[in-house]
Model the fold of this input.
Amino acid sequence: MFGIQDAIRAVTEKFPTSLYVSTCGFITRDLYNTADRPENFYLVGSMGMAAPVGLGVALARPGRHVVVLDGDGSFAMNPGALPMIAEHAPDLVHVVLDNGVHESTGGQRPVRIADPVGMALAAGYSAAHSVSSPEELAAVRPEPGVTTLLHVACAPRGAHAGKRVEWTPQQLVERFRAAAAA
Amino acid sequence: MTDAQTLTARPPAATGRENAQHAQSAAEALVQAFVDRGFTHFTGVPCSLLKGVFRVLESGEGPAGTVSYLPAPREDSALGVASGLSAAGAKPVVLMQNSGLGYSLNVLTSLNLIYDLHVPLIVSWRGHDGNDAVEHDIIGRELLNLLDVFGLRHTVFDPSDPHGSVERCLAAAEDGRTTPVLIVKEGI
Done:
């Protein structure tokens, strides 16, 4: 099993030109500290909203590939969004970084989803994969244009995330909007 | 789709073609007013008071012919999708019953209001006269107070002046620092 920060880095290297939406807490902070770019839209609150926001981005920019970085806790918070996303079949990879804990708030036990892959497929996603090593992640090649769930079983950080996002929310919107239009 | 459903689906299409000769309904004019101002997507959760608006949006005809309508499972997710649309440069509108405002408060306060992603909300006002079904009593009584607490500027929709209502609603948030709310009290 690989560390969640290594998993985030591996995803950003796998999809280097995509538009990103990251869930609040440590995942946003890790993405910011790993690969800050104008194409990243960091949520600092609104847990459970990364995937709906990702759908909105994909619908506004149909020519762009979108990556959503969710955690297992935030994914479990809003499974109702999955069929809405599936209905529009966006060119989107929905990554669920599953470290098995609410790590941003101190490592509490989250509600567990027994079968994230099955749930995504039942909601209407066209493809869904579950991986638990860098090699397995590298082997997954999501088909372009296909709404895909990518569940990544990974280890907790065991430490604090990096620093908080230093851009103001308004700056994030300004640079993301420009990058999305480019 | 069965033949029966196909048959019942046809009359709205005919109505759409006749729009050119007939005055628009308040619901059509409401959608038209947003379309005229460059809005591109509508998402939300239905309310019986907004039945006509959802009918127009679902038809995809007349004023809804050039926009997308995205049914949402819950009001907060509708706001999330609208926020993504807005962040990436589109112009969405969110529709909901006032009951959905409760679900939406976290998204409003930790996303829309702090990122200045101000998406107009069309909110129906069940319980406005204290004489509605019991589940609407409290949110109906407190709706305007709730909007005031979060600085959401509200305009009550006037069915006899849809374009003016939308104009006033959007003008109230012209500074780009607050979310405009158009309140619909009577069914349209």
Remarks:
- Chain B has seven helices and six strands.
- The helical segments of chain B are 3-18, 26-36, 51-59, 75-87, 99-115, 137-149, 162-171.
- The CA atoms of residues 14 and 37 of chain B lie 26 Å apart.
